[in-house]
């Protein structure tokens, strides 16, 4: 069998799925690739500075500290040059004050780099990343991250620790909320969009910030879904599943990458030479700087890898981790001694320093170190930002169920509406995690959104009914303590108040799910059930026979089967952000038609995990759905799934040519028609399956998608081009990327179980 082995130089483009493609409007992998080249002049300027730096100043440049507490306590370190970067400062006055010490009072006047977790907005909050992934709309994500960047830069922030590109197939892992979901192809498309949104068209573009894709790599596969625990994946899973979003981000020009906390196959990511140097720099061609995760260098001691902090610092730096992010003090301060004692080659330290100085130079910080504080508020409160957040929230909504077409609701049909549930009127749970700068008064909760939508003539009441509480506290409670637990008496009174409010309404919207800190970092769960007493509340409310529909706010798939036994319609809102309540109300009352699709397979129960659509074909494939005797082994909702208020149909799938030579592109088209009475969006999704070859390949793999808006009765042809980038895979026997001559099945449809298919043959040379 004659096959094609791909050269190492083609690897980065192929991993990223960014080979040239005929139809850029349709295939998101065809995005413009930014220049990776570092301007020569920036390198020369960095080298001139390095020549003047002491070893201690060099160690300082590779040390970044969390700025918690009094800014004055950080001034001495900035002045002496022992701190080169800070994080967690958002007040432009404080940023300017510390920058002034760096620029005017330190020996070499090297400006500080300020980083921050700008994850889904700074003050204007967009849907959480999993929600934006559900939009299947990379341009919407790009617009959102451009707004986030503008607000951050106007506050003096230069760099974000985002996007999180960790593919995960384990919804027990709380950080699923921060990422693109389970699929590498969708993840890669979102990665490109996020990097472009944050950075603009180059590092240093005005009004933009450096993007820092994280956590490199495979953090989303922690054992048991337990945050920070070790990861064991094969090279095949590494290259085919986990790497593509990072490859895409590097190709899009990301200026920074964050190394992950955990060990990958026993080697900690923060000191993993293979990962940070062989893969990231040599195979993917990354030329920005790598930062550790918080305390990731010092952790190497706790991980049983490094002897002490000095050992940790030297080994992490040598492996390719340039900058240490740390609380209190940096282990990297020991690097000066490591060079003096001959343990570390100064060239290794210089290389890391050079990468950080180049970033500062590219960001223009030597010319413009300060932020214009007089502009900040106008940027952060810009009405256009709120409008962008509203549109993004609308596009992230996924209609999970809608029995009998109960949704949309007629706005004039109800006089008394009750919006009930623990997240119905909660600002924090409308916004989600990683939100520290947003304003409560700018946030539209779901209850408030319904109230505004229905106007004064309709009475809208709200009550939480039950309280959501974690079993153990969240680390983020250090920023904002959790509300005190209700007493039993209070819990009874609140429950009764909610049930009474529901009973006296003629429509009930239950808003359920998880509190903002029930997903995110340090927020793993063993169960996917609605937490707490929420189902008891639903049962009490629905017992009255009132019409009830449900909205979910959550960051992970939840088992909604028990809820579906009681309510006919469920709208998935994720944590929809500043304008979330407006978006949800507009969807409930039919002003917008939900068009989002699940970026993750929705399990029936946690016992099915890991469950994902792109599993391999296996023995007894016909019985794939009955692998367990106590529950079907099929998902509750498949990957790519989402309903609409209108009906779409896919017909006429065809391939340009039934047989192509190895490496030649294949065009696949189908007709998409809106057969319903409303305008709406459908996400046309293309999946492939390679029938045989040098490895068993997944039953289906997403290889193209396009979100399309169609008027009632309107038809459109969708067109995808499959190139080497889509047909290749990393082969464990060859230990390389390969393209096999084979028959490929191809499907186009509205989810990963789409039935409409055809096939084509790739013929060997
Ligand atoms: C998280 C990172 C985050 C960093 C800085 C860490 O605990 O894992 O994702 O960027 O803190 O806040």
Could you characterize what this model shows?
The strands form seven sheets. Strands 11-16-15-14-12-13 form a six-stranded mixed β-sheet, with helices on both faces. Strands 5-4-3-2-10 form a five-stranded parallel β-sheet. Strands 18-26-25-20-21 form a five-stranded mixed β-sheet. It starts with a strand and ends with a strand. The chain is 31% helix and 17% strand. By secondary structure, it is of the alpha/beta class. It is globular. The N terminus is likely disordered. It contains 24 helices and 26 strands. The structure holds beta-D-glucopyranose. Beta-D-glucopyranose binds next to loops.
Task: Give the helices and strands, then pairings.
Layout: E1 4-5, H1 8-16, H2 40-52, H3 55-61, E2 63-66, H4 72-80, E3 85-87, H5 92-105, E4 113-116, H6 129-134, H7 138-155, E5 159-160, H8 184-199, H9 235-242, H10 244-251, E6 256-258, E7 263-264, E8 267-268, H11 273-283, E9 289-291, H12 299-302, H13 309-319, E10 324-326, H14 335-340, H15 346-362, H16 373-380, H17 383-396, E11 398-402, E12 416-420, H18 427-431, H19 446-454, E13 459-463, H20 488-503, E14 507-513, H21 534-542, E15 548-553, H22 561-564, E16 569-572, H23 580-588, E17 648-655, E18 659-661, E19 666-674, E20 680-690, E21 701-710, E22 715-722, H24 724-727, E23 729-731, E24 736-739, E25 742-749, E26 757-763
Parallel strand pairs: 2-3, 2-10, 3-4, 4-5, 6-9, 12-13, 12-14, 14-15, 15-16, 18-26
Antiparallel strand pairs: 1-24, 7-8, 11-16, 17-19, 19-22, 20-21, 20-25, 23-24, 25-26
Helix pairs in contact: 1-10, 2-15, 3-15, 4-5, 7-8, 7-16, 7-17, 8-10, 17-23, 19-23
This protein binds beta-D-glucopyranose.
């Amino acid at each position: 069998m004659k096959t094609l082995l791909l050269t190492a130089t083609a690897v980065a483009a192929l991993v990223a799925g960014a080979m040239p493609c005929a139809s850029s409007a349709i295939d998101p992998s065809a995005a413009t690739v930014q220049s990776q080249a570092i301007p020569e002049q920036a390198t020369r300027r960095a080298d001139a500075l390095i020549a003047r730096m002491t070893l201690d100043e060099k160690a300082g440049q590779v040390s970044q500290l969390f700025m918690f507490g009094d800014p004055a306590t950080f001034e001495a370190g900035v002045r002496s040059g022992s701190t080169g970067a800070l994080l967690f400062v958002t007040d432009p006055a404080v940023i300017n004050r510390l920058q002034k010490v760096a620029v005017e009072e330190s020996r070499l006047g090297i400006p500080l780099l300020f980083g921050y977790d700008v994850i889904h907005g700074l003050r204007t909050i967009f849907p959480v990343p999993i929600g934006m992934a559900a939009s299947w709309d990379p341009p919407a994500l790009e617009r959102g991250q451009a707004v986030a960047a503008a607000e951050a830069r106007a506050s003096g922030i230069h760099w974000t620790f985002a996007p999180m590109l960790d593919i995960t197939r384990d919804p027990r892992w709380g950080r699923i909320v921060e990422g693109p979901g389970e699929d590498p192809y969708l993840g890669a498309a979102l990665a490109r969009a996020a990097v472009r949104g944050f950075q603009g068209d180059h590092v240093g573009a005005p009004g933009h910030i450096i993007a820092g894709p994280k956590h490199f790599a495979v953090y989303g596969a922690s054992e048991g879904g337990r945050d920070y625990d070790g990861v064991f994946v094969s090279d095949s899973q590494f290259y085919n599943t986990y790497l593509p979003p990072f490859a895409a981000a590097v190709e899009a020009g990301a200026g920074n990458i964050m190394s992950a906390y955990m060990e990958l196959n026993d080697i900690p990511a923060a000191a993993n030479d293979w990962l940070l140097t062989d893969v990231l720099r040599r195979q993917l061609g990354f030329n920005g700087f790598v930062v550790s995760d918080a305390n990731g260098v010092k952790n190497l001691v706790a991980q049983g890898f490094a002897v002490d902090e000095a050992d940790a610092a030297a080994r992490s730096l040598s492996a390719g981790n340039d900058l240490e992010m740390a609380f209190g003090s940096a282990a990297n301060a020991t690097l000066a001694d490591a060079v003096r004692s001959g343990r570390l080659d100064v060239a290794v330290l210089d290389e890391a320093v050079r990468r950080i100085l180049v970033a500062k130079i590219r960001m223009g910080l030597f010319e413009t170190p300060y932020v214009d504080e007089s502009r900040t508020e106008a940027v952060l409160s810009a009405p256009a930002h709120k409008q962008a957040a509203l549109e993004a929230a609308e596009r992230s909504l996924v209609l999970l169920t809608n029995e009998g077409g109960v949704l949309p609701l007629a706005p004039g049909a109800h006089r008394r509406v009750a919006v009930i549930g623990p997240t119905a009127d909660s600002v924090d749970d409308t916004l989600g995690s990683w939100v520290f700068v947003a304003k409560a008064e700018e946030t539209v909760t779901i209850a408030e959104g319904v109230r505004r939508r229905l106007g004064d003539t309709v009475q809208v009441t709200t009550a939480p009914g039950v309280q959501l509480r974690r079993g153990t506290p969240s680390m983020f409670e250090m920023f904002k303590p959790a509300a005190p637990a209700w007493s039993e008496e209070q819990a009874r009174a609140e429950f009764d108040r909610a049930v009474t409010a529901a009973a006296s309404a003629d429509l009930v919207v239950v808003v359920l799910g998880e509190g903002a800190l029930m997903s995110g970092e340090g927020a793993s769960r063993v169960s996917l059930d609605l937490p707490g007493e929420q189902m008891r509340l639903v049962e009490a409310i629905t017992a009255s026979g009132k019409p009830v529909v449900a909205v979910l706010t959550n960051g992970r798939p939840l088992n909604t089967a028990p809820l579906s036994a009681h309510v006919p319609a469920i709208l998935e809102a994720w944590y929809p952000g500043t304008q979330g309540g407006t978006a949800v109300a507009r969807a409930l009352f039919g002003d917008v038609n939900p068009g989002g699709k699940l970026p993750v397979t929705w399990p029936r129960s946690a016992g099915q995990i890991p469950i994902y659509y792109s599993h391999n074909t296996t023995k007894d494939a016909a019985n794939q759905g009955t692998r367990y005797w106590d529950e079907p082994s099929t998902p509750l909702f498949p990957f790519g799934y989402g309903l609409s208020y209108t009906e779409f149909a896919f017909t006429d799938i065809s391939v340009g040519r039934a047989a192509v030579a190895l490496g030649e592109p294949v065009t696949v088209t189908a007709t998409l028609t809106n057969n319903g009475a409303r305008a709406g969006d459908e996400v046309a999704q293309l999946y492939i399956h390679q029938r045989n070859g040098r490895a068993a390949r997944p039953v289906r793999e997403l290889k193209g998608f396009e979100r399309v808006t169609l008027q009632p009765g309107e038809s459109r042809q969708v067109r995808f081009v499959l190139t080497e980038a889509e047909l290749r895979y990393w082969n464990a026997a060859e230990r390389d990327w390969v393209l096999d001559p084979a028959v490929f099945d191809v499907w186009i449809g509205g989810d990963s179980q789409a039935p409409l298919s055809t096939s084509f043959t790739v013929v060997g040379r």
